[in-house]
Amino acid sequence: MRYISTRGQAPVLGFEEAMLSGLARDGGLYVPETWPTLGREEIAAFAGLPYEEVAFRVMRPFVGDAFTDTEFRGIIDRAYAGFGHAARCPLVQLDANHFLLELFHGPTLAFKDVAMQLIGQMFQVSLGRSGRRVTIVGATSGDTGSAAIEAFRGLEAVDVFIMYPHGRVSDVQRRQMTTVPDANVHALAIDGDFDDCQARLKDMFNHHAFRDEMGLAGVNSINWARVLAQVVYFFTSAVALGAPHRPVRFTVPTGNFGDIFAGYVARRMGLPVERLAIATNQNDILHRTLQSGAHVKEGVVPSISPSMDIQVSSNFERLLFDLYDRDAQEIARLMAALGQAGGFELSPAALAQLREGFASGRASEEETADAIRATLSRSAELLCPHSAVGVKVAEEQPASAAPMITLATAHPAKFPDAVEAATGIRPALPQRMADLFDRPERLTRLPNDLAAIENFVSGNRR
Ligand SMILES: Cc1ncc(COP(=O)(O)O)c(C=O)c1O
Ligand SMILES: N[C@@H](CCOP(=O)(O)O)C(=O)O
């Protein structure tokens, strides 16, 4: 399998190099040259298999010769061994036809662990083989950061620098990043919002002299391997509810468009997905895009679902690439318009395709809190605010015989203030994290300035 850039000007790479490089050198995102498909029988055969086996079968076609089958099975087994649930990503029934896919049983209590634990293992095998060192830079609105730190802490061949928006993540999320004592980990509080952090991240990758000198690697969903690992749970959950013999529907709480893009990939691979609904909070650029056809940035407004406080949804570029029949020149033009003019209009053909493939909805702050409360009283499930945005939007979708699966993307204990305000219940952290608020914090506050961030990175990597 070969990987090409959405902007058409970067070298074509194999899986391992695409995984280690992060952003393509032309500023685009790597995508597989073609979408591999799985036949009905192959998908049906997933029923009853352990999560790890389905992961192997779904991801194998994308990995090529980067890892032997034995290496790849070992990587997958080690990635999920520490998850707190035997099913890894269990399904919970909310009502007759609505299910929650719990993605927060990994070490840092959010869906990011599902992919990050896997790529942590992939990096270790790959770097161990080559003797190469990398400097991981990441941007987070709260969850990617701690998942990355957990996956890469203490590794000799890796330094990790995570930028988060100062004052805009929950206290639990911040402490998960700032209380890790390992010398290779650096939490950087940036004066800006997540879009600023992600923009500086991409600036670093696009500054080729810096990128090459530092050996930059990216573990945001810029990295194709992150998205790939997330495709797996669309298959496991759908098959558990009868796919491929009956279609299913998904609603995905969405910010950077990585998770829902993974659902799109599952559908391209042959999974019968009747509806794929984008659920946004008040930072609703994607919902507005579906409604109006205009993809226009507005300022990020802080919300009680802070991990989705995003207006520049990085992976939307990957979808646009397909919507525009893989016309890389056109994608480069649209992305330049987004950067310079703050937005663009989708062509009528691209918009029609977008609306055919996706639905969307939005939850206000009040509606999010209502969904947390209503779900608790109906089914005793305590939702995090992001999952609540998903449940609210799922419930608005037209009735169908196909089961609806809403992705529950984080544990409620990561957002205790919002959950307590909605329900009066303060969710407790698991015992292993009970002393999180007693641990000393270590962080560096930096301006939203490329030179300042680059100086810090170059001065502090080992
Ligand atoms: C808890 C949570 N839910 C949902 C999202 C949105 O996922 P994506 O950015 O892949 O759209 C994020 C962050 O991205 C998150 O941390
Ligand atoms: N919500 C994310 C934002 C970064 O998304 P990613 O999937 O591109 O890493 C976070 O919690 O950091």
TrEMBL record:
<keyword id="KW-0028">Amino-acid biosynthesis</keyword>
<dbReference type="InterPro" id="IPR051166">
    <property type="entry name" value="Threonine_Synthase"/>
</dbReference>
<dbReference type="Pfam" id="PF00291">
    <property type="entry name" value="PALP"/>
</dbReference>
<dbReference type="InterPro" id="IPR037158">
    <property type="entry name" value="Thr_synth_N_sf"/>
</dbReference>
<dbReference type="Pfam" id="PF14821">
    <property type="entry name" value="Thr_synth_N"/>
</dbReference>
<feature type="modified residue" description="N6-(pyridoxal phosphate)lysine">
    <location>
        <position position="112"/>
    </location>
</feature>
<comment type="pathway">
    <text>Amino-acid biosynthesis; L-threonine biosynthesis; L-threonine from L-aspartate: step 5/5.</text>
</comment>
<dbReference type="GO" id="GO:0004795">
    <property type="term" value="F:threonine synthase activity"/>
</dbReference>
<feature type="domain" description="Tryptophan synthase beta chain-like PALP">
    <location>
        <begin position="99"/>
        <end position="352"/>
    </location>
</feature>
<dbReference type="GO" id="GO:0030170">
    <property type="term" value="F:pyridoxal phosphate binding"/>
</dbReference>
<dbReference type="GO" id="GO:0009088">
    <property type="term" value="P:threonine biosynthetic process"/>
</dbReference>
<protein>
    <recommendedName>
        <fullName>Threonine synthase</fullName>
        <ecNumber>4.2.3.1</ecNumber>
    </recommendedName>
</protein>
<dbReference type="InterPro" id="IPR004450">
    <property type="entry name" value="Thr_synthase-like"/>
</dbReference>
<comment type="similarity">
    <text>Belongs to the threonine synthase family.</text>
</comment>
<dbReference type="Pfam" id="PF24857">
    <property type="entry name" value="THR4_C"/>
</dbReference>
<dbReference type="InterPro" id="IPR001926">
    <property type="entry name" value="TrpB-like_PALP"/>
</dbReference>
<dbReference type="InterPro" id="IPR036052">
    <property type="entry name" value="TrpB-like_PALP_sf"/>
</dbReference>
<keyword id="KW-0791">Threonine biosynthesis</keyword>
<keyword id="KW-0663">Pyridoxal phosphate</keyword>
<dbReference type="InterPro" id="IPR029144">
    <property type="entry name" value="Thr_synth_N"/>
</dbReference>
<keyword id="KW-0456">Lyase</keyword>
<feature type="domain" description="Threonine synthase N-terminal">
    <location>
        <begin position="2"/>
        <end position="80"/>
    </location>
</feature>
<dbReference type="InterPro" id="IPR000634">
    <property type="entry name" value="Ser/Thr_deHydtase_PyrdxlP-BS"/>
</dbReference>
